[in-house]
Amino acid sequence: MALKCLGYSVELAQDQEEVLACLRSSKSEIAAVLLDIMMPNGDGIDTLREMKQELGDSAILCFMLGADAFMKLPEWYSWREMFGLCHFIVAARPGHPLLEDTDILPRELMLECQNRWVSGPRKLGGRPFGLVFLAPTILLDISATNIRACISSGKSARYLLPDATLDYISANRLYLEGQ
To answer: Taking CA atoms, which of 3, 5, 24, 111 is between 20 and 30 Å from 161?
Structure first.
């Protein structure tokens, strides 16, 4: 995976229990944890709660999602609680108007984010949770939701993910229809 190529130690976990076991057994400081909101044996929000409890209130956790998913945040279970657990890094999607106009957010989300926007990722270090950074990204029309749907329907996700990630998903039978 890309992080290994950059010299990082990488631990893979396929569900909430494994994520928490990795946190507890780690002998070194953990620089980042990448989560999906949809996980077997728990979800991303439950895992965030557990991680915050395990790592302490001063731990800085960031939840990255696409602009399209961020727009639907008010539809999520306990979405407001997430602002007390982590920062949000919102990745732009091709053609998505959020880059130009944050006024298109649903009203309740716009009000929640009113004093939370930051202009750069370094500003997320000033507080342990509650900020939102709209990240400029290379605009490829790839989303985790579309990748899961592709895999679930038996279609190939090749070129959408690194081969090592696809191998892991295949070996662990993740995102298959009916699971």
So the answer is: 24
